[in-house]
Design a protein that fits this description.
- The structure holds two protein chains of two kinds.
- By secondary structure, chain A is mainly alpha-helical.
- Chain A has helices at about 1-10, 10-20, 40-45, 50-65, 65-70, 80-90, 95-110, 110-120.
- In chain A, α3 packs across α4 (about 50-65), α4 crosses α7 and α6 (about 80-90) packs across α7 (about 95-110).
- The radius of gyration of chain A is 24 Å and the shape is elongated.
- By secondary structure, chain B is an alpha/beta fold.
- Chain B has a single domain, classed as FAD/NAD(P)-binding domain (3-Layer(bba) Sandwich).
- Chain B has helices at about 20-30, 55-60, 65-70, 115-120, 130-140, 165-180, 225-230, 280-290, 365-370, 385-390, 435-455, 515-535; strands at about 10-15, 35, 80-85, 185, 235, 240-245, 250-260, 265-270, 275, 315-320, 335-340, 355-360, 395-400, 410-420, 425-430, 460, 500.
- In chain B, α1 links the parallel β1 and β2.
- The mean pLDDT of chain B is about 95.
- The chains are: A mainly alpha, B alpha/beta.
- Chains A and B meet through α7 and α8 of A and α2, α6, β4, α9 and α10 of B.
Chain lengths: ~160, ~550
Amino acid sequence: MIEEKQFLENKHPILIKIMDLIVPAIDDLPGAGSMGLLNELKILCKKYPKIYFSIRRIINSIEIDPISRANGSFIFLDIDRQIETLKIIELNLSDDFSILINAIYSVYYMNKDVKKRINWKYNSIQPQGFEILPWDESILVEIKKIKPFWKNPDN
Amino acid sequence: MVDKSITNPDFLVVGSGASGAAISWRLGKAGFKVVCLEQGPQIDIESYPHTQKDWEIKAQHEWNNNPNIRSLTEDYPVNDLDSEISPLMFNAVGGSTIHWTAHAPRFHPSDFRVKSLDGVADDWPISYKDLEPYYDLNDEIMGCSGINGDPANPIRKKRPMPPIPLGEDGVLIAKAFDKLGWHWWPSDNYINSTKYNGRDSCNYCGAVHLGCPKGAKASTDITYWPEAKKFGVKLITHCRVTKITTSKEGKASGVNYKDIRNNGKEHHISSKNIILACNGIGTPRLMLNSKSEKHPQGLGNSSGLLGKNLMFHPYTMLVGLLPKNIETYKGPIGNSLMSQEFYETDPKRDFVRGYTFQFNRSSGPITSAIGLASRPVAWGENHHKEFESRFGKAIFLATIIEDLPERHNSVKIDKKLKDSSGIPSPKINYSLSDNSKKMIQHAIQTGTTLLKTAGATEILTTPVSKSAGWHLMGTARMGDDPKNSVTDKWGRCHDIENLFIVDGSLFVTSSGVNPTPTIQALALRTGDYIAKQFRSLKK
């Protein structure tokens, strides 16, 4: 999709800013945009076009915001005003915003540095699986004291 | 050209999921010529997303359990704009058993007698005793892990495997129930706690809702189908049935279907008998789309009840956040224990019937962030703090509310919305009853008490989960009176003697438990009936 590619290429600064606002910096990790995850987001857009269309609607909405226009661009607003603008978009385009949030969270928590920070050691959950405590019937001691209480309507 | 080996079978089954697989197996075993048409593909279990690093992203898209989100060629869209709950389903060999969490409870004996006991809805034309041997048979074929002694349920045959371990989080919840003096019991699950019938045991990766690449979770593509094929049952994939055709006398004569892979070319197969196993939405959709001169309201709809009385199970979700990370993503995400403390009607409460608490788990980091069974983690300055409070610390109680039948809750045809083959799609109208709303409020109170007792420091509540329409029931109910039901007690249409239904459409009431073992037991029972009644057809 040429249109998709061009649109996203032209909106790098605003997308990076949005990503930083959604998932800000923590400890020694920068925000999701400054971490360089935009490329992953673009890959996701290519694979799942509905993400691209949601992002496009959100950016178009930001760009027609009168205060953003008066200041030249969303990226020149102060951070409080940027957050306020996103909150208004969240309210007005709730489905699109929800798709955007899910996409940003998805690329963020796939990142190896983020996984390390939250102590998630796995790339996938199979074939290794997990270990859990084995079945131990002694847990039934208390509940076994309760007498059968199911109803038998056919008696 | 239609392959001659599949023409004019004794029984043509539409749908290869929970019930279609069970009845195909039973009739194949009895020696009948059986053909099953499935609109989805046969999926290799090794292609499930668990071994891929983007498994949590695929779960949101092509592995989503909502067909409207997934939008694969084999799916059909469902108009759910006027429904408080979105229907979920999967189209492939094995149907929705690919996606289910494999919890395998049974109806209580009282569930078949709600009119007699509580003066609401209708009694079923059959009893628990009628289904019991088929529940047992199904447990054996699907492979049940569990243990006898549950005081809330009748004693049953010994399960072939011990229960799935409860894990640290499950033990925590079990002890909280004990402290309150409330009922709980390890759940019956069709997940192997040990190796069983050539299938591997569970390694607790968690994501059973995306299929099981080890084959430890039972889905009918790996339980019933390999056996059914050995009996000569022909299973044909990528075939979307567009219409059930009828003879001049009004009997079912066969089906028209489109080959989804071959430019949607339409074919016809004639059949002596037809069995529908397309779920509580797909079956009425097909019957309503099959209207003819003899059946102007849709096939089998002289009662006017086809598509009416749609029941889901409303799900109330309570997520408890523990103070310490105990890695609550380890172990099957579905039900490892359940409570039926509030299952039966209690005149002291302001509602009839009741609900089951199911103890469920968390999942990986992306799923935790986007909000499993609750709102997503906040974006912005509180994001990291909130994520930290949830990841590995979230346990959740899913409350499965008994849904009583109401005629205005229905499946109709949306003539404008069509699937990839151009066939009109279903439109759902569904709203919660006052009885359900009262039950939900009760469940929020009791569930909150339970989670606090278990040590949760914060509780996130979703009174009704919109994306929880797993159970599709009631839209072609069984009964003795043709004026008040679509089929008889064997699933045979009152109006058309050679048309049977074996899926959740048959349900008279919903109970307060997951329906699949009951759906499969009904299919096996109908299979037994047919095998006796139709002996003369045998090849």
